Amino acid sequence: MLRKSSRKPIALLAAATSLALVATACAESTREGGGGADASEPFVFAAAGSISTLDPFLTSDGETYRYSRQVFETLLRHESGGSEIVGGLAEDWEQSEDGTEWTFHLRENVQFHDGDPLDAEAVCANFDRWHNLTGGYQSSNNSYYWQSVFGGFAENEDEDIPDSRYVSCEAQDELTPVITITEYSSIFPGGFSLAAFGLMSPSTLEAIADQEVTGEEGNFTLPEYSQVAGTVAGTGPFTVEEWDQDQDEVTLQRFDDYWGEPAGFETMILRAIPDETARRQALEAGDIHGYDLVAPADVEPLEAAGFQVPTRDVFNVLYMAYQQEANEALADLEVRQALAHAVDRQRIVDTILPAGGEVATQFHPDTLDGWSPDVQTYDYDPELAEEMLADAGQEDLTVEFCYPSDVTRPYMPAPRDIFDVISADLEAVGVTVEPVTYEWADYIPRTNSGECPMYLLGWTGDYNDAYNFIGTWFSGYNSEFGFRDEDLFEAMEEASGNPDDAERTAAYQELNNQIMDILPGLPISSSPPSIAFAENVNPPAVSPLTQENFSEASWK
Amino acid sequence: MLRFIVRRVLQLIPTLVGLSILLFVWLQRLPGGPEYALLPDDATDQQRASLRRSLGLDEPLTVQYLSFLRRILQGDLGTSITTGRPVLEEFLTRFPATFELAVSAMLIAVAVGLPLGYLAARRRGTVLDFAAVGGSLVGICTPVFFLAFILKVVFAERLGMFPSAFRLSPGLSRTNLSGFAVLDGLRTGEWDVVADALAHLVLPGLALASIPLAVIVRMTRASVLEVLEEDYVRTADAKGLHRNTVRTRHVMRNAMLPVVTAIGLLTGSLFAGAVLTESVFAFPGIGSFIYAATQDRDYPVLTGFILIIATVYVFINLLVDISYSLLDPRVRAQ
Question: ipTM of this predicted complex?
Answer without folding.
Answer: 0.77
